[in-house]
Amino acid sequence: MENQEKSVLIVDDTPQVIRLLGDTLQPHIKNISYAVNGEKALQLLSEKTFDLILLDILMPDMDGYEVCKRIREQEKTQDIPIIFLTANTDQADIIKGFKVGAQDYVTKPFNPEELISRVNTQIDLYLSKKSLAQMNDILEEKVAIRTKELQEANEKLNHLDKAKGDFLTIISHELRTPLNGIFGFSDLLSMHLD
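The structure assignment produced for this chain is given below.
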């Protein structure tokens, strides 16, 4: 899972934070997009796909919790991992973040190595999950094809079994008809010889 495969959306209302996050991630993540508010983030998510969202909690108009809820409501975006960015280390806020759908959080100011590690871990998990889902879809398709083939083969066997039964009935009848005549003549002969 090289850099060119990974894409991240950074959502923060502070341009300096966006720049710092971008500079930190750029050597490790090739495709980085930015949004300065929740509405812009939701618009970008409707246009592009991302492997991870770094989402600030405290933003004007629409906070990170609301943005996260809306992301989770959309089928297209519901599985994208979200890492909350927060200056607040209050446990209640962190728990609220997990409850609305975040996978992780990073406190501001952030440690660059920790951020890179958390981002890569979440992206790798997400891409592995997507890969497994695709393999599962392929396997389900193959099972459906194989099941259909087996049903068709079973129908052919049933048809052949019926044809065999019909054939044996006809042969039995055809063999008995001449024998009935022979048995009849032999009975007549045995009655006249007595």
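Interim note for the steering committee: Residues 178 and 184 are 10 Å apart (CA to CA). The chain has one domain: 3-142.
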